[in-house]
Amino acid sequence: MSQFQALTVAAVTHETRDTIAVTFAVPPALRERFQFTQGQHLTLRAMIDAEDVRRSYSICSAVQDAQLRVAIKRVPGGTFSTWANDTLRAGAVLEVMPPMGHFNVPLSAENEKHYLAFAAGSGITPMLSIIKTTLLAEPRSRFTLFYGNRASSSVIFKSELAELKDRYMERFQLTYVMSREQQDIDLFNGRITKEKCAQFFQHWIDLADIDQAFICGPEQMMHDVSQALQDNGLAKEKIKIELFAASVPKRAHASSKQPLAGSHDCDVTVIIDGAHIRFAMEKDKESVLDAALRQGIDMRYACKAGVCSTCRCKVVEGKVDMDANYALEDYEVARGVALSCQSFPVSDTLVMDFDQDH
Ligand SMILES: Cc1cc2nc3c(=O)[nH]c(=O)nc-3n(C[C@H](O)[C@H](O)[C@H](O)COP(=O)(O)OP(=O)(O)OC[C@H]3O[C@@H](n4cnc5c(N)ncnc54)[C@H](O)[C@@H]3O)c2cc1C
Fold first, then answer.
1. Is residue 259 one of the residues assigned to a domain?
2. Which atom of ligand 1 is least distant from the CA of 60?
């Protein structure tokens, strides 16, 4: 069975000058497969200029909305986002992979928590899903959001956020940080940097009161915020990040300097959709994903840069070396989770299970 399903676009709305929100119609037969958890993303595929282009887009609707919707911000010179903004209309059919991703924490109606979120630009997309879902699912929990933008004209989901604020006046606090539009309080002018965060934590928000933080935006901002949170006393385990990273360059694999032990080739078994597929590949030369694709296996993947985690799997036998990893937490790597696009076999045999952990 293909990893992708053809879904019809039910609606396209313009959120800002350069961002569209795309709602998909999910037929009853596919409803279960397209059930999602707040903060998850979809992988979309289109043939653009005869090239198979796949990109990830976070779901922006709440779980309770029973609606599948993503937002696509135009990246200057970007292949998929330009194509989508220029051509996608209601009635179009797109290939869509079922939801995946781990940018969330379990919710419970019993919880009485305070969540903190930092978003910049299109990084608001998963946050909207997380915030809305959480406020609905946990009637005693609170959410505080810092949302960085250049100016109000570039704020995605401005009216939806305003509605949320009105509806949950006591439980949802929203602060805009603008880099090119003067606001009354000086603290909220500029970019979200480490120094600015330190000021927020001094004057505005008590981190001792925070149960969980979420960060989504450009790489530098995420790094700065995460560092500032930790420097000011929030434990790393309480911080979840989602990297969009259109900017992460695809690096060439640097071969191991040490000669690898054992034989020249690795005997690989890929377990996917219940099938066990076995093939041989050279060690330390190409990624398991690329080798599997060359075998004609219908693999799940998108960015091929260690960011989106679409190709996530579990190493159940053998060992791989991973080049880049922007998606997995340390504890996940420790229990054998790997990104197949970045995994180079170093053992003589290797079994990678794509059904156990994605
Ligand atoms: C988990 C996840 C969730 C995401 N969610 C969202 C979301 O909700 N909304 C959203 O808008 N995006 C999201 N993204 C980002 C999205 O997947 C794409 O990366 C983004 O839309 C850009 O794709 P593109 O094809 O338009 O750009 P690409 O063609 O991939 O180009 C990206 C950048 O590289 C530059 N570039 C391209 N080719 C070259 C070249 N040959 N030389 C030099 N520079 C080049 C482009 O100018 C552009 O700046 C998400 C990403 C991930 C991993």
1. no
2. 8
Give the predicted TM-score (pTM) of the model: 0.91
Has residue 253 been placed in a domain? Answer: no
- Within a domain: residue 255? no
Residue 273 lies in a domain: yes
Give the residue from 243, 274, 294 where a domain finishes. Answer: 243
Give me the mean pLDDT over the 61-90 stretch.
Answer: 97
The verdict on 47 and 90 lying in the same domain is yes
Residue 356 in 3-state DSSP?
coil
Co-location of 229 and 272 in the same domain: no
56 pocket-lining for ligand 1 (C-beta < 6 Å): yes
Give yes or no for residue 296 CB within 6 A of ligand 1.
Answer: no
Q: Are residues 225 and 119 in the same domain?
A: yes
Q: In what order do the strands lie in the sheet with 142-149?
A: 172-178, 142-149, 114-120, 212-217, 239-243
* pLDDT higher at 260 or 318: 318
Residues 121 and 165 in one domain: yes
The domain in which residue 63 lies consists of: 5-100
Our count of domains for the chain comes to 3
For ligand 1, whether the C-beta of 337 sits within 6 Å is no
Determine the distance separating the centroid of ligand 1 and the alpha carbon of 302, expressed in angstroms. 11
User: Does the pLDDT of residue 1 top 60, yes or no?
Assistant: no
Atom 1, ligand 1: residue with shortest CA distance: 308
Read off the pLDDT of residues 328-357 as tens digits, 9 standing for 90 and up: 988 899 999 999 999 999 999 999 999 986
User: 354 alpha carbon to ligand 1 midpoint, in Å?
Assistant: 25
For 6-45, the pLDDT digits (tens) are 999 999 999 999 999 999 999 999 999 999 999 999 999 9
3-state helix, strand, coil in the chain (%, to 5): 25, 35, 40
The pLDDT confidence band at residue 262, using thresholds 50, 70 and 90, is confident
DSSP result, 285-327: TS-HHHHHHHTT-----S-SSSSS-TTEEEEEES-EEES--SS
